[in-house]
Amino acid sequence: MAVGHNVLVLLLAVICCVGECKKRNVLLVIADDAGFETSVYNNTVVRTPHLAALGRRSLVFQNAFTSVSSCSPSRSTILTGLPQHQNGMYGLHQGVHHFNSFDGVQSLPLLLGQANIRTGIIGKKHVGPGPVYPFDFAYTEENNSVLQVGRNITRIKLLVRKFFQTQRKEEEERPFFLYVAFHDTHRCGHSQPQYGAFCEKFGNGQRGMGRIPDWKPEYYTPDQVKVPHFVPDTPVARADLAAQYTTVSRLDQGIGLVLAELREAGYENDTLVIYSSDNGIPFPNGRTNLYGSGTAEPMLVSSPEHRERWGGTSQAYVSLLDITPTLLDWFSIPYPSYCLPGTPTTPVSLTGRSLLPALVSEPSPAAWHTVYASQSLHEVTMYYPIRSIHQGAYRLLHNLHYRMPFPIDQDFYVSPTFQDLLNNTLAERPTGWFKTLQQYYYRDRWELFDLRSDPEETVNLAGDPALAPVLESLRHRLLKWQWETGDPWVCGPDAVLEDKLEPHCRPLYNGV
Ligand SMILES: *[C@@H]1O[C@H](CO)[C@@H](O)[C@H](O)[C@H]1NC(C)=O
Ligand SMILES: *[C@@H]1O[C@H](CO)[C@@H](O)[C@H](O)[C@H]1NC(C)=O
Ligand SMILES: *[C@@H]1O[C@H](CO)[C@@H](O)[C@H](O)[C@H]1NC(C)=O
Ligand SMILES: *[C@@H]1O[C@H](CO)[C@@H](O)[C@H](O)[C@H]1NC(C)=O
Ligand SMILES: *[C@@H]1O[C@H](CO)[C@@H](O)[C@H](O)[C@H]1NC(C)=O
């Protein structure tokens, strides 16, 4: 956290309150499995006028990353500022997966509530336990259909309106934090296949699909779509992407409705608006991977108090771990001192930083050039711990259990793109993909990529003697971050963590 800046903001807040106290609110919009399929990031095919309008009022980050490529873990990091291995949400929350954050975690909604800020959530929550993530106003999958609160943009619009109406009724109007978590553009094939691979037919007015009054579906043909480098270029994958694009149009129009409600309720000029997504798109090498294709995220930050860089772009490396420090900075709330199981004797500290200074001027590249990531599971059966660091031109991944095949999730398994890849591989036909399934399943323990010469991450340089010092330095920094964040996996896979008295790694002599 930029401490100096915090103090300044706190000071300003105090000064302002002597005269007229300026209200500050937050609207956080998180899409589900969404990527760069928007004109804001120069996709010239998909039509996203509402995101484009928000982009003109935002600083657009070109190097924003999630710290974990899985839904519940990512949402837990957004709402705590702590990586999954530190807050305890190692995998998915729902059903048999059953993951939760530690009871003692001081989450963003908890801290904001204690600071007398009204909290609301509409859409996909997917984190727990309840007392760690309390919201004053909640319409989520916990007591509603996730299709209604997460994809029916008319319903979402009405819920946002209800939030603002009840906000107005409050005697002493409190500042608010409203978190709108769309379920678009998540896949649908595993849960509601009748609506299409991306639920792109849900509410489109066709027979049996119902109607979402505010949605005007946009359709695309397979030959139109832009195939990302990590998606196989086949007719099946193109049709899959075209369906995804249609769902993007529902997300975009939904964002337009939410922003219109904000404007009509009169909060546009005192609300910080952040738009991002939880993890990579649900295609091979995307979601559940810590490669760039699984971790790069759209990130728009729109502050009515920082208009200097509206419509501009930033190269600064930023993380979803920065969202909690940014909001605490915006509201001038200090982070409390407390401990968690991973570091029982050292108080928890946030390793992210407030993004507000970047809204004023581009940060020095030397200072904002490192992001970390940490994955343990997705579904409960998908144990595949990875730790990674991305610094400057290099990304280093540590695949702790590299001798196991990389696991595949249920939702992705049934997707047309993956079925096509399996079929083509089995039949020894060309797959149209940039790697083989064998390579995808079996990875090296260390993977090092030079993103200047190899942005698609195809050549592992970990064994290159010329890069040995780079590898060593990255490994050292990654380990340092793991110790700082109380990572229980810090000694794996060739040692055991002994944490009585002085925590240290004791060797296993297991040959890895
Ligand atoms: C989009 O392209 C323009 C022109 O090449 C470039 O200046 C801008 O930075 C790009 N925006 C993003 C978000 O990549
Ligand atoms: C939905 O459930 C949440 C948490 O269980 C609760 O706080 C909220 O009041 C409920 N909302 C409605 C509308 O029932
Ligand atoms: C979406 O929500 C609106 C408002 O609640 C409702 O009238 C409409 O039937 C819903 N559409 C679908 C497809 O469920
Ligand atoms: C918000 O600020 C803009 C520019 O200063 C101004 O034109 C607009 O009227 C303001 N809106 C409200 C609701 O105060
Ligand atoms: C894959 O092969 C199976 C069995 O032949 C077939 O039923 C299925 O339609 C194929 N899927 C794709 C996406 O080609």
Q: If you had to describe this structure to a student in words, what would you say it looks like?
A:
It is a single chain. Strands 1, 2, 3, 4, 5, 6, 7, 8 and 9 form a nine-stranded mixed beta sheet that branches. A four-stranded antiparallel beta sheet has the order 10-11-12-13, with helices on one face. A two-stranded antiparallel ribbon has the order 14-15. The chain contains 15 helices and 15 strands. A hairpin with a 2-residue loop joins strand 11 (386-391) and strand 12. Helix 7 packs parallel to helix 8 (235-264) and helix 8 (235-264) packs antiparallel against helix 13 (416-426). Residues 6-20 have low confidence and may be disordered. The protein has 512 residues and is an alpha/beta fold. The protein has a domain at 25-366: 3-Layer(aba) Sandwich (Alkaline Phosphatase, subunit A), CATH 3.40.720.10. It binds 2-acetamido-2-deoxy-beta-D-glucopyranose (NAG) (5 copies). One 2-acetamido-2-deoxy-beta-D-glucopyranose (NAG) is lined by residues 130, 138-139, 142-143. One 2-acetamido-2-deoxy-beta-D-glucopyranose binds next to helix 13.
